[in-house]
Amino acid sequence: MSTALVASLRLARAGFLLEAAFELESRGVTALVGPSGSGKTSLLRCLAGLERGAAGSIHVGGEPWLDSARGIFLAPHRRGAGLVFQDSRLFPHLDVRGNLEFARRRAPIPAPGANLEDVAGWLQVAHLLERRPGEISGGEARRVAIARALLASPSILLLDEPLSGLDEERKSEMLQVLASLAERLALPMVYVSHSASEVARIAARAIVLREGKVQAVGEIADLTSRLDLPWAREEGAAVALAGQVVDVDRSDGIARIRTPAGDLLVPAPDAVPGRAIRVVLSARDVSIALEAGNPSSILNRLAATVLSREDDERGRTMLQLASGQARILARITRRSADALGLVAGREVVAQVKSVALF
Amino acid sequence: MSALSPDHQAILLTLELAAVSTAIVLLLATPLAWWLAARHERQPTLASIVAAIVSLPLVLPPTVLGFYLLLLMGPSGAIGRLTTSMGLGTLAFTFEGLVIASVLATLPFVLAPLQAAFAGLGEGPLEAAATLRASPLDRFLRLVVPACTPAFIGAGVLAFAHVVGEFGIVLMIGGSIPGQTRVVSVALYDHVQGFEMSEAHALAATLLGFSAVALFFLYRLGMVMPYRAASRRP
Amino acid sequence: MRWPEPPTDPSPSGRGVGVRVLRQILALTIAALSATATANPPPPPLRLAVAANFSAPAREIAAAFESQGGGKVEIVTGATGNLFVQIVEGAPFDVFLAADRRAPEALEARGLALAGTRFTYAVGRLVLWSKDPDWVDAHGEVLRTGTFHHLAIANPIFAPYGRAALQVLDSKGVRGKLEERIVRGESIAQAYEFVASGNAELGFVALSQVWHDGHFDPGSAWLVPEHLHEPIEQDAVGVGATKHPEAARAFLAFLQGEKAQAILAAHGYRAP
Questions:
Q1: Regions of chain C with pLDDT less than 50
Q2: C79, B176: Cβ pair inside 8 Å?
Q3: B96 CA to chain C: closest CA distance, Å?
Q4: Closest CA to A257 of A172, A305, A326, A174
Q5: Is B58 within 8 Å of chain A by CB?
Q6: Is the CB of residue B6 less than 8 Å away from at least one CB of chain C?
Q7: The pTM of the whole model exceeds 0.95
Q8: Closest in C84, C158, C199 to B74, CB measured
C-alpha cells in the first residue's frame, strides 16, 4: 500500500500549539483520536487548507499542498480535501439535491460509476433529495454532507466526529455505511473521534493526539492493546484484530476465524470462508483462568502470558496479555487479580466469551 | 426629448437616477459590507470607525449634506479640484453629480441589511464551499448572493425608494435643469411654489402610484424567491 | 442606625450655605413673578412673515420699530410661496412681506388680506455677478461672448429675480444661446450660493446680496439697468385674520417712513 499523504504540521494559536508529523496510506481509514481540545479538528482544518497560519509541509500524491520553506500554500478550493464538518454545513438556500449538485459540478473528473444517485444510495439519502436542509434530521444531514463531500471527487476524505449527536442505533448504522465506503473507495479517510472504541470498529491505523502533540501512531491492533493509550481507559475498551474466516461448520453455524491472537470460534452462520474480517474483542468479555481445566460454556480458550497490569481506583484491573502474535486486554476485578497472583510473566488461559465481527 | 412634457421628463429622469444610483450603491456596498461583517469581531475599532464615517449621511439633514457637497464639488473644493484636474469640469448641476450624491446618501441604508445578512450566513457554509472546490468568486456568486438574495432585494428597494424621494440634496446641487437634474421631487416643489396645484397633485399621484406598484412587486419577489430556490442552479 | 442631626443653624460648611442661598433666590423669584402677574400683561408680539431675501433689512426695521415704542416684533422667514400657503391655511401671522407682488395680490384676491394695506415696500435691483474679478464686465457683454459653463438664476417659475434675469437675456438676444448653460436655484439665495461656491462662474443675484457697506463684494459685477426687465417689486400686506390690526397697520406705515427707507437703501433696495 502506497503512501498518499505525508505531513509535518505546526499551528500556533492563542494558548495552543499543534505539532504533528504523520503519513496516510492510499486506502483505508486512519483514525484520529484524542481528548477534546487535543487538536483533532485543527489538524483536519490544516489539511483542508482552512488554517492560514499553518506551517510545515503537506504533500498529497507527491503534489505539495503546503510547503512553508518554498512559500507554497494552496488555497482550500485548490486542494479539494473533502472535509465533512461536525455541523454538516449544508447550504440553506438549496435542497439536498442542489447541495449534492453543487459538489458534483465542481468535481475535476467524476469517478466512474459514481454519479449523484449512486452516492446518494450509498449514504442512504436517496429518498431525501427533494427536501430542504431545514427539514431533515441531524443524522440525515450528516449523511448528506458526506455524500456531498464524496461527489466532489476529493483526494482525501476527512470526517470530523461523524457520529456525534447520533443515538446508538444510528451510530451503528453510520459506522456500517462508513466501513463499506472505506472498502469501496480507493481514498484515504481520516476519521476523527474522541471515542476510541468507536474507531476500533472501522479504522486500520490510528494517530493518537494529546495536547497538540502526537502521542502514538500505528496499526489499530497495536494501539488498542496498549495500556497507556485512551482505548484501555474507556468502558468499552477493546482490541481490534485483523481476522480471516477459515471455515464455517454448517451443522451449528460456528465459524473459525484465524487472528494473530489465535483461532477463535464464533457463531456466524453467514460468514464467508476466505473472507477478511475484523474482530473486536472487548476487555470485559475476557476472563482469566490459571489452567484450561473444567468444561465450560466458553469455546475460546487462548494460551496467553501476562505482559502488564494496571489497577484503577474502582477495584478493577486491566491486564495486557500476549496471545499468539498479538496482544489482547482483559478487565477483571482487582480482588481476582490479586487472588490469582497475576503479575507480569505469569502464564494463564484467556477465556473469550464473545467477540464482535465486522 | 421635447416631445415629452416637462413632468414626464422629470419622471423618466428620476427613474433613471434611481436605477443607476441603486446599481452603483449595491456594487460599492457589497464588498464593504463583506469586509465589515468579516472584520467586525477581529478588528472592532477599525470596523466601527469605517461604519461611522459611511453612516454620517444618516444623521445630517439632506440640505446640510447638499450644501457641503456643493462646496466640495466647486472649483475650490476637494472633489472639484479632483474632477477639474481630470478634465471633467465640476460635478454640480450634472446627472453624474446627482448619482454620486445619491450613492453617498443611500450607502448607509444599503450597508446595514447586507452586513447583517453576510454575518448571518457566517463563515461555515463558505468554508464548506471552499472544500468543495469553489473559488472565492464562485463562492460569492453561487453561495453568498443566492443565500442572501432577500437582503439584496431589500437593500436595493430601500436605496431606490430613497433616491426617488431625495429632495434636500438634489435641491442644493441640482440646478433644476430639465432632462439633467430636474427630478420629480424638485418639479413638485416648483409647481407648489408657483401655485400650480393641479399639476403638483397629478405629479404626486403618478409618483405614488408607480412607487406603490413597484414596491409591491419587488417585495413579492423577495418573499417568493427563497421557496423557488430549490429549483435554481447550484 | 441613627441618622445624623440636620444642622439647625447655618454652619460655615459650603453645602449648607449653598442650599440656603438657592432657597432664597427661589423665594424671591416666585415673589417677583407673582407681582408681575398681577400687573398688566405685556402685549403679544407682532408676527411678521418675511421673504427670506429680505430677512436682514427686516430685522433692522423691526428693531427700529421696537425702539420707537411700536411694541415687540417677531419675524419668521421663508420662501414666499411657502409663507403664502401657510397664511392661507390659517398660520397666525399679522403682516406679510413678500419677495414679489403675486403672493400679496393673491391673498387680496382671496379676501384674506387686511383691507387697503397692500403696497410695494421695496424694489430690488438685479446684478450679474461673479466671485472671480475677471468674468463680468461693466456692460454685461460677457453674456454674449463669455465661455462660461454655468449661469445661475433663480427659478423663473416663481422667483421675480429669475423672471427678470430671463427678461434681461431676451433683451440682449442671448436667451437661446445660453439656454443650456442656465442652472436654476430654488430661490435667489440659492442662485447666489451657486455663484459664491464657484460652481456657476456667474449669475443673476440680488443687489442686496452683494452690496455691503456701500460697495460690491470682491468679484466682478454688472448692475443691470432697470429698463431691461420688469421692475422687481416686493409687496407687503396685512393679514386679514390678524388679531392686532392696529399694530399691523402701524408697522406697515412705519415701513413706508424715512427710517425704514434709509435701512432699505443701505441694503441695496430702492423705494418704489
A1: 1-12
A2: no
A3: 15
A4: A326
A5: no
A6: no
A7: no
A8: C199
pLDDT less than 50: residues of chain A? 1
Q: Which residue has the cell 459611511?
A: B54
CB contact under 8 A, C197 and B171: no
- Is residue A49 within 8 A of residue A76, CB to CB? The reply is yes
Task: Decide if A75 and B127 are in contact by the 8 Å CB cutoff.
Answer: no
CB A64 within 8 A of CB A74: yes
Alpha-carbon distance of C120 to C88, in angstroms, equals 21
* Contacting residues of A for B232, CB less than 8 Å apart: 94, 98
The predicted model gives B123-140 an average pLDDT of 93
Domain boundaries, chain B: 6-232
Written as nine digits, the cell of B8 is 414626464
Q: Which of A353, A331, A347 is closest to A265 using CA atoms?
A: A353
Residue type at B57? P
A101 to chain B: which residues are within 8 Å by CB? 234
| Cβ partners under 8 Å of residue C227, min gap 6 | none
CA-based nearest residue to A30, from A44, A48, A51: A44
Q: If pLDDT is split at 50, 70 and 90, which confidence band does B105 have?
A: very high
Greatest extent of chain C over all pairs of C-alpha atoms, in Å: 97
CB contact under 8 Å between C85 and B192, yes or no, is: yes
Choose from B195, B196, B199, B203 for mutation: most chain C CBs within 10 A. B195
**Phi, psi for residue C245 in degrees, rounded to 5:** -60, -35
Chain centre distance of CA C126: 17
Burial class (CB in 10 A: 0-12, 13-18, 19+), A239: buried
Provide the pLDDT for residue B47.
86
How far out from the chain centre does Cα C32 lie? 37
| Number of C-beta neighbours around residue B178 at 10 A | 16
Q: Which of C118, C142, C119 is nearest to C221 (CA)?
A: C142
Identify residues of A whose CB sits under 8 angstroms from chain B CBs: 48-50, 75-83, 85, 87, 89, 91-95, 98-99, 101-103, 105-108, 130, 132, 145, 148-149, 152, 154
How high is the ipTM of this complex? 0.84
**DSSP string spanning A152-203?**
T--SEEEEESTTTT--HHHHHHHHHHHHHHHHH--S-EEEEES-HHHHHTT-
CATH number of B6-232: 3.40.50.300, 1.10.390.10, 1.10.260.40, 1.10.3720.10?
1.10.3720.10
Q: Is C186 an interface residue toward B (CB < 8 Å)? A: yes
Find the CB nearest A94 among B127, B149, B234. B234
CB pairs under 8 A between A and B: 85
Cell 454532507 -> residue: A145
Question: Distance, in angstroms, between A26 CA and closest chain B CA?
Answer: 20
| A132 vs B contacts (CB less than 8 Å) | 230
Per-residue CA distances from A188 to A183, A191, B134, B153, C126 (Å) = 11, 10, 22, 44, 89
Question: Contact A200/A240 with Cβ under 8 angstroms?
Answer: yes
Check if B193 contacts C (Cβ < 8 Å).
yes
Which chain C residues are closer than 8 Å to B192 by Cβ?
81, 85
Closest CA to A16 of A39, A33, A46: A39
Instruction: Give pLDDT, residue C52.
Output: 83
From residue A339, how far is each of A287, A336, A343 by CA, in Å?
A: 14, 5, 11
Using the beta-carbon criterion (under 8 Å), do B131 and A99 form an inter-chain contact?
A: no
Residue A341: what residue type? G
Grade residue B127 by pLDDT with cuts at 50, 70 and 90: very high
Q: Which three cell numbers stand for residue B187?
A: 418639479
Q: Is C182 in a helix, a strand, or coil?
A: strand
SS3 B179: coil
Rounded to a whole number, what is the distance in Å from the CA of A99 to chain B's nearest CA? 7
